[in-house]
């Protein structure tokens, strides 16, 4: 337990930031969060100390980081838009604040950094040769973090595949493409090819893994990277089957993702363009090698898949009872 330690969480209303904040709070950390809408944040994380500010404003981040021993940089540009203009400046503000306070930076990593030259099993030591613009930006972000570590700022990166969980956000394939929030599951959309594996990280497990690593901060080097395996199937469509069973709709069809429409419209719709860049990650198996993580922690936190999916679908109002209740509530409210 760390009752007197403070963690600043940037992106605390997002999926990863929310779960990391919760896992740290359960260990006695004081959680501080920065948001342009602190009133909204307080409804999600009432135990956090919410400050009004913007991660794009260096002074706001610096003020929020005073006396913090950890800065969780889990903030991302909304809707995959304008990564070049937003992601790098926000990270620079975090690095500057960490240098001033001596805090360690925790950064959620993605598989965007890698290209087919190191598929199908990604190790922490593999070279990063991205195929996409977002991937190149993510590589540059990690390079800046490594440079900061060389100047004395401690950094922890925990990399995972696609996220799902009870507090998923719009920047998630699960909630954007596979199922629709607020409705019972009548079909599941699957972006991948048959027989191709895919990595999924359950957000509460991921947040718990990060917190356990932070518990052992003194045993880690100044720049440390771990890979989180999560849930993996050799045939990724088994994940779609598991969704159907968890939703109580085992006969719901699994439909192919309309890549041809998305690719055709990508020159005109920025969101489609950003999603189309990620198609290569669905065409081939991509798994994360978590042996370093399990060697260090002894195990990787792992919620059984059915329980994880049931909780996720319940919170998304995708189970028949929750969706019906929400619909009746909305009708009464009209």
Write structural notes for this entry.
By secondary structure, this protein is an alpha/beta fold. It has a domain at 6-169 and 199-231 and 286-303: NAD(P)-binding Rossmann-like Domain (Rossmann fold, 3-Layer(aba) Sandwich), CATH 3.40.50.720. Helix content is 43%, strand content 17%. The protein has 14 helices and 14 strands. The chain has helices spanning 15-26, 38-44, 58-64, 83-101, 133-150, 173-178, 203-215, 237-246, 259-265, 270-276, 280-283, 291-297, 305-315, 320-333, and strands at 6-10, 30-35, 49-52, 70-73, 104-109, 121-122, 155-159, 162-164, 188-190, 198-202, 223-227, 231-233, 254-256, 287-288. The strands form 4 sheets. Strands 3-2-1-4-5-7-11 form a 7-stranded parallel beta sheet, sandwiched between helices. The chain has a 3-stranded mixed beta sheet with strand order 8-10-12. α4 (83-101) links the parallel β4 (70-73) and β5. α1 packs across α7, α8 (237-246) packs across α13 (305-315) and α9 packs across α10 (270-276). It starts with 5 loop residues before the first strand and ends with a helix.
List how many beta strands DSSP finds: 14
Beta percentage is 15-25%
Q: Average pLDDT across residues?
A: 91
Structural class category:
alpha/beta
How far apart the termini lie comes to 47 Å
Examine the secondary-structure arrangement and name the CATH architecture of the domain at 6-169 and 199-231 and 286-303: 3-Layer(aba) Sandwich
Strand neighbour order, sheet with most strands = 3-2-1-4-5-7-11
Helix content: 40-55%
* Uncertain parts: 322-334
Kindly report the name of the CATH homologous superfamily of the domain at 6-169 and 199-231 and 286-303. NAD(P)-binding Rossmann-like Domain
The number of distinct helices, counting runs of at least 4 residues, comes to 14
What overall form do the CA principal axes indicate? Answer: globular
Helix and strand succession? EHEHEHEHEEHEEHEEHEEHEHHHEHHH
GO cellular component, one term: cytoplasm
GO molecular function, one term: aldehyde dehydrogenase (NAD+) activity
InterPro entries: Epimerase_deHydtase (IPR001509), NAD(P)-bd_dom_sf (IPR036291), NAD(P)-dependent_oxidoreduct (IPR051783)
Domain NAD-dependent epimerase/dehydratase: 7-221
